Amino acid sequence: MEPHMTPARPAARLHPGKCLLHAAAWIAITYMMVPLAVIIATSFNESNRLAFPPQGFSLKWYTAFLSDPTYIDSILNSTQLALGATVIALVLGTAAALAMARGQFPGRSALLTLLMSPLVLPNIVIGAALLQFASMLGFARTFTSLLAGHVILVLPYVVRLVLSSFSGLNRSLEEASQDLGASPFSTFFRITLPQIKPGIVSGGLFAFVVSWVNVELSIFNTSPQLSLLPVKILNYVEYTVDPLIAAVSASTIYVAIVMVLLIDAFIGIDKFANARAES
Prior knowledge:
Helices cover 73% and strands 0% of the residues. By secondary structure, it is mainly alpha-helical. Helix 2 crosses helix 12 (243-266) and helix 3 packs across helix 6 (143-167).
């Protein structure tokens, strides 16, 4: 062999276990995506029956959905509730994550367990408990009671995702900022906040989606005057099954897709997946 020639690298061998893992992952993804594709396809059905494959192509069910003022009101209520719960959860969750990441105080583990407890309890139990508590205080089945319940529901996601961002934080930048005379307030907003942005953005988007699609907690605390989209969908399918419900359900899928695209645009899917794995 001549001195300037390099030996050829052996071809990479496919590990059987890795191939099986990839195959299982694709099967799981397909299993989850096929029902969503069926719902979206059925929503364009021209027939008055809920059938797949769809018979023809029509947008009449989307037109009927968007021209119904009760559905528009439920969308607005769900959006307002999800936005309000997300903003409050971001403020409280970021503050709690900061305290637990920086402070070593008695009861820290107990506080974290308390904040994570809504993930352990079934949502239907939280909804029933919230209804009884709000009834005792005289504000049951109001927007305030719904907002309090949804904040409790989404707060654990924000805390865990923001807390995972603090684990990789570069403290030397904060120390340099304070050495140069910056106040703690200025240091947080100019140094700390940009570094934990992935956790805040992903936590906020995740909280919005969880609040938007929640049924179990909401069904106990809504009223005819305060209808939410997931609850209205549930009530509709109890009496009628037609492509209109497919169009409404497909619209919620579109919202989730938009959330995924926003996550990818702001922080990247890989970073979001890593943050979820760490949480």
